[in-house]
Fold each of these.
Amino acid sequence: MTQEAIFSPFFATLFLTLLVWVYMYIRRIGFIKSQKIRPQDLVASSAPVQIWPRNVSNPSDNLKNLFEIPVLFYALVLYLFVTKQVDIVYVTAAWIFVGFRGLHSAVHCTFNLVMLRFYLYLFATLAVWFIAFRAALTHFGA
């Protein structure tokens, strides 16, 4: 396995963020046009929160969420690459993270069943913590 193999799930996560970003703007712009809202009416930071229906605010919430745990994932990927620790276990865990994050985003941006979303988020996050703890154990020589 090459060290570069870890960048496939890295870029998949990056492009998931792009996809959610595009979807968020499609939902927002569609709502603004359908409701004939003037952009200036959205100036106050609390204004959108008061007017967006859930199908418009959920993609925005999900985009914010993609800048939480995934930031740790990106840092870990770079650490593993720089320290030449990439192996099949890390790459598999990274793909598990990506898969569950993709499913989490799909649920969050559409029908938003909260408990399903929670478990998808949990499994994705556990994959990141697995990567982190395994890397730390290696780093500290355990």
Note: The mean pLDDT is 94.
Amino acid sequence: MNSKPLIVKDLMNKSVATIVTNNINTATVFKKYKIDFSIHGNLLLSKACHKKKINLKQIISDLNAVNNKVYYLKDYNSWDLDFLIDFLVNIQHEYKEENILLLKEYGEKVANLYSQEYKELLKINRLIQKIADNILEHMRNEEKTIFPYIKKLVEAKNKRTSVNTNNSPLNSPIESIEDEHEKVTKIFKKISKLTNNYKIPENTCISFKVLYLKLQQFEELLLNHIHIENNILFPKAKKLEKSLLLDI
């Protein structure tokens, strides 16, 4: 069963992030048009299209094409915050940890094999090696500080108890994490450009193909992951924290 068609006038004054938050399926359309929905998703759709010189009716046609009903397993905006955190840690963080190590290995291997013919592989490998450890450290910081604190807020709300917010990580640490989000997306934009949007050259070995496919998959998950944190988890956590302060 499909949702009702999206209407031009209803969407013009909605932010890109809001559209993706309402339906994660639309993320594929914004990625196609290279419109950022995770870091600077607060830009209105009309302004984003104007900036990129994209026909508004055309993009809304594409948005309608993917506007299928969002089932609970993809409707992240409807999930409880503690459940959302478990998903980020146990599914997405685990995937990222496993695959960033694979990307480090294959980036080095493919650069050694093909860099004379494809000079860009040296730059791609350097970017992978540069960002890999940062991503792993970033995830550890979230799991050690931010996520446990948000879970404490949820527990306090459910049990109607107080929580110490004096050293809340929802201020400066959150801003630091969002800055890191922006840095890593910029690096993957560079990688995407260097790989010609992950176009695999002919007559290359399986390792070359695996590297480009894994890079593309990783970037897609990364953008969705950052969107969930920046535009759903963190804003809701700040709102929850504020509500608890008012109740005290």
Note: The chain has a mean pLDDT of 90.
Amino acid sequence: MPKGTDLDHKDVLFIAANTRSLAVNRGALIRALQERGLSVGALVPDQEFLQEVHALGVTTWHYHLERHSMGVRGEVARFLELRRMIRKIAPRAVFAYSVKPIILGIPAARLAGVGETYCLATGLGYLYGRHDRRTRCIRALVSFCYALSGSLSQAFFFQNPDDCNELQQNFLFRRFTRSVVVNGSGVDPEEYPFSEPAAVPLRFLFMGRFLEEKGIREFVDAARRLAPENPGVEFVALGEVDDSTVNAIGAAEVAAWREEGIVTLPGRVRDVRGHLQAASVMVLPSYYREGIPRSLLEAMSTGRPLITCDSPGCRETVLEGVNGWLVPPGDAAALAGRMQTFIQDPVLVGRMGKAGRELAKARFSTELVNQQMLKEMPIAHIERPLEGMA
């Protein structure tokens, strides 16, 4: 489906944080809305996965997003741009996710005359994981803006209970927002089918952005500890440098890892399923304040045991000792110890992998997650989609 024009009107308009997340993480929800006869459009800030979004039958419009900008003049300009675009598209409902789309897009939508709005926090991110004075001030402002957008919306969806509890410490949010906790974005067990994990060679896989809080340094450190005594074990890290992101790992450091040669660094890939099939154990020592990491759900569905942090969003994916292990945030020694457990007893890989597959189907399938979200969305229950606003 092509890019939209001012004459296109949609029943549901998504305001996306990035085009990849719209295709990969919101795709199942979009299809569920379309199955109810609703037309879907999206405001997107980039074009990387635009073909995949159009293949979903979603009409797109481009808007400008500065993820880390705090300039008042620039944010006001982007707010006015969003209001103007939403008014012309005239959707019946707006669904916004991630920080800027929520705090700018929801008030803009209501001022543009949209009757239904929904928010989705896909994790609270580094702002809620750091405690220096500047971050605390910004966090207080963001929490107030979340409360404002939540009060204007039919529902504010969270992907883990810790994030919900965090924002409900704000009285305005607790008093005026309907909070709903769901199990992440979900995963389609058919799209990520089970396969027997290989124990020889034993391969540990990291998948995520190369940010400090994602735990990539801890993964590399653990690999350094284990590699000398375990020459047949492999360590792979999928991801890339993103200099535009706060607390990103620098290109020089990643280049040094590549030169060192202990960890294989294929870079970023569009389809991770081949790497999951080749992996034995998924390792994500993240303390980023995730929603629920999509990579962990994909690994569970594929039948890979997990090692992740005892931190919000990550801990929800692990039944300790059943489908994986939790380690303290920032503790490379503890991480290496749990990885060593699989090296010493490879039988655990298959047993825990099967348990993870069953957990993914029982608790984290996209069908279950979408049913819960659609239940909270009145527009998903009308018998026929109504005309867009005049």
Note: Residues 236 and 264 are 5 Å apart (CA to CA).
